[in-house]
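name: query_chain
kind: protein
chains: 1
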Amino acid sequence: MGPGRTVLPLNEYVGDREISSRLSIRNVTLVDPAGPTDSGYAKLRQWVDDSLDSFKNDLNNLLFPVFIHLYLDMISMRRENEALTLMNQYKEDFLEVHASEIRQIEMVRDISNLKENQFAMAFISNKYHLTMGKYAFDLLIDFLELNGMLKIGKIVNQYLNIKVFTGKMSEDIMDIGLVGVADFDFNKKPITSGVHYISPKVEELVLTEEQYKYEYLDQFLGILKKKKMENIPPNYERIPLPSPSASHISSEIDKLRDLAKRMNVGKHQMPSICCYTVHNTFETLCCSDYSPDLKLVALGYTDSYIEIHSLTDENLLKLKQSIYLKAPEMRTGKADDARDDVGKGGAACWAFGPCLCCEVLCKQAVFAFCLAGQHNSYVVFGHIL
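structure:
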C-alpha cells in the first residue's frame, strides 16, 4: 500500500466512527411521500457543486450512481412521471462520461421494462465501487445526517461500496464502476475483422486482363494477401455472395487503385502537394482529370472546348492526320505545352487511360483521341453532354 496511505472498507470505517446504526436503515422504506419529488438529489447536487475543489472530485463520482438508483426506485414504485422529470432535469450532467449508460437506463419507463433491462438489473443486483478520501466521506455522512436524507443514505449503504483512503490516492485503489458490468458490456464482444480485401472475381480480372498489367495492381494484391493472412477476416464462404455486377467490379478496381496510391505519413515523412490555378475560365470549366503519371491535365469546358496541358517540361505534339498514322515516327510537328480540341457539346467528365490497346469504341455521346508526348502516349476519353 505504501507509506502514508490507508485503505479501509466502508463497513469497517463506519464501525470505527460508531455510526453504523445511523446508516443501517435497510428496514426503512425508501418511499417518503412527504419528501421532495427528487428525494433531496437537487440539494445533494448543489452541495457537491459548492464543495472545495479538494473534495469535489471524490464527491462528484457519487452523483451518478445515486441518480440512477433514485430513478430506478421511482420506476419500481410506479412513480413514472416523477422519474421522467428527474431524468430530463439532470441527465445532461452525465452525458459527457456516461452517455451509453444513460441511454440504456432511459429505456426503463415502467416496472415491466425494469425487469427486462439487463443493465438496470445489474445496478440493482451489484454494488457500485467508489474511492473517496477520509475527509470527503466524513463531510458526506454529516451532510446526509443533518438534512435527514434517509433515501440517499440507504442507497449509499446498500448499493455503494466506498473505499475510504487517507493520504494520496494511487492507481491501485482507483476502482470506480459497477461490479459485474463486464457481463453487460456488449462492446467487448470479439469481432471478426481483418484487412479489406477485394472479391475473387475482381482479383481474377486484375491478374488476367492486359489493361491492368502496367498499373502494378497485381503487386499490391500480393501485399493485401500477406496482410490478409496476418489478420484473418470472415470467410467468404460463410455467407454466399451474389454475382458481382459490372458497376461493382469497376468500383472495386477503383478502390484498389486508390489503396495502391496510399503512403505512410509521419513527422519524418511528410507529403508534398502541387496546386494549379486555371485563370480566365469565366465559370465555364466544369471537369478535369490528371494522367496516371501526373504529367498531363485535361480540362473540359461547357462551351465544348477541351484543353490538354503538360505539367512538366515535356511539350505535347500535334495529333497526326489519319493518312500519316502508319508512319513509324510519331513525333513530327511542332511541340507545344498545351493542345485544344472541340467536341459537340459541353464536357461532363474526363478519364485518362494508358494507350496499350487502341481499339476504342466511340458512340454518339463518347469520343476518344490519342495524345502523344515525348515518352508516353495516352487515350483520352471525353463524355459529352
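note: The chain is about 35% helix and 20% strand.
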